[in-house]
Amino acid sequence: MSPIVANGSLTARRGRRSSSRRRGTELRTDAGAVIILALVYIVSISLVVGALADWAMNDLNNTTKFQSASSLDYAVTSAVQVAIQSIRYTPLMSQTASPAIGECWVPPSGLLVSQVSTVNNETVAVWCTTVQNLASAATRVVTFYACESSLSSSSTSTQVSQAATSCAGPKGDLLTAVVTFDDYPPGGSSPLSTTCTAGQCGQGATTNQWVWTSS
After folding, report:
1. pLDDT value, residue 18
2. Peptide bond before residue 108 is cis, with ω within 30 degrees of 0
3. Is residue 36 part of a domain?
4. Model pLDDT, residue 65
5. Strand, coil or helix: what is 73?
6. Containing domain of residue 126, as a range?
7. Which pLDDT belongs to residue 66?
């Protein structure tokens, strides 16, 4: 009986050693799988974080551009509104023939262009042409062209003229507005024979067109 017991013990020991090797192999296999999964997770997170960082940077850049565009739009709108109110009550006779293109209000001394500078360092020039029909309630139809301007008191008349022509050209301006002014007093009057004088003009005003030029 002793040899049989000995053989049984030997077989049992071999079984335990084989089982231990299998468990060791399984542990090493599991550890390798965990490392691979960890690497995949780290790479995935890195890609997501990189994409989010690019997205955030693009948003920041776009915000700056939107603010710049908004600032310019505000400056252009303000300049055109100034021009509309000025020429409504004080027509410029030089704009009522041909029609010629020129100032929308009398510029300050030394400057040959009607322009407005804003606190955001945006300088906008506005040019006007006027078609007059004294016999009609649509007494004056004025077209306004607004452009960014680099003109100054040192600009020559030729430079100013070229800027005006360029601004009124196809897609040369940022904003085109067309406004009709009624220079007849409420209740009407006899037909006008001459352009109204300051203080008697612009009883009514209708904006016919307000078009931003696509860039």
Report:
1. 54
2. no
3. no
4. 45
5. helix
6. 74-212
7. 44
